[in-house]
Amino acid sequence: MNDRTLLAGCGLEAGYGPSQVLFGLDLEIRAGEVVTLLGRNGMGKSTTIKTLIGGLPLRCGEVRFGGRPIHGLRADAIARLGVAVVPEGRQCFPNLTVREHLIAFADRRNDSAAPWTLERLYALFPRLRERAGHMGNELSGGEQQMLAIARALSTNPRLLILDEATEGLAPVIREEIWQCLAQLKAAGQTTLVVDKYVERLLRLADRHFILERGRIVWRGSSAELDADRALWQRYLGV
Ligand SMILES: Nc1ncnc2c1ncn2[C@@H]1O[C@H](COP(=O)(O)OP(=O)(O)OP(=O)(O)O)[C@@H](O)[C@H]1O
Predict the structure, then answer these.
(1) Closest residue (by CA) to atom 18 of ligand 1?
(2) Apex CA 84: angle with CA 78 and CA 86, to 5°?
(3) How far is the CA of 149 from the centre of ligand 1 (A)?
(4) Which CATH number goes with the domain that contains 142?
(5) How many domains does the chain have?
(6) Could you tell me if the CB of 39 is within 6 A of ligand 1?
(7) Which UniProt keyword terms apply here (predicted)?
(8) Ligand 1 lined by 47 (C-beta under 6 Å)
(9) Would the ipTM clear 0.90, i.e. be above it?
(10) Which residue range(s) make up the domain with 177?
């Protein structure tokens, strides 16, 4: 830990019923960083996120956010502290308009020197401004993903977490999402990204963690990951 650490998971153990998935996992994210969690399918990336945000009970270990222990808090309490998640599968409401999605979570808003107003969100995602009056179920997959990210930002999160946010999107839309994340990074947004496009993530992220069977087996900078292609083959299958 250093004094810029925003989120730290230490010795995390968790699982489902009798099956243990995380075996003493350690990771930390510093304020202003973009960090990725990488690993092949089934290695425990989504389970790690669920554990960090109160969606799955910890069996052992601790999670700290802004220096304070948050393990044992419910997911909604953790969200109120300033952790926003864009889950796999987007989860837009079919019967709410884009605008309604973006104002629906106003009560969850954290104080911020530069709050995410509707205007700022539309400036980041001009496509959402064009679609403001459309229902969730009238949006394309890419638009739904943008809406999911904008909705997460509308709470002014101190930490934004994206779990496979570009899954199933056309390459051109995926690139739009990466460019938005780069803009967010430039604005100082701390972000944890789970995704499989390692090559693209090298440019976006500062540091990376590789997960293998519920343990962190490698951590390092983009330059270090770029330089060691044997790691990619061994742990990422690319
Ligand atoms: N709800 C659940 N109940 C039981 N086992 C689960 C559940 N969710 C995940 N698992 C198991 O936990 C292990 C880790 O899954 P997890 O979804 O965390 O992996 P992942 O790295 O995110 O992979 P993917 O990219 O496929 O989502 C897998 O063996 C998976 O089958």
Answers:
(1) 44
(2) 135
(3) 23
(4) 3.40.50.300
(5) 1
(6) yes
(7) Amino-acid transport, ATP-binding, Cell membrane, Membrane, Nucleotide-binding, Transport
(8) yes
(9) yes
(10) 5-236
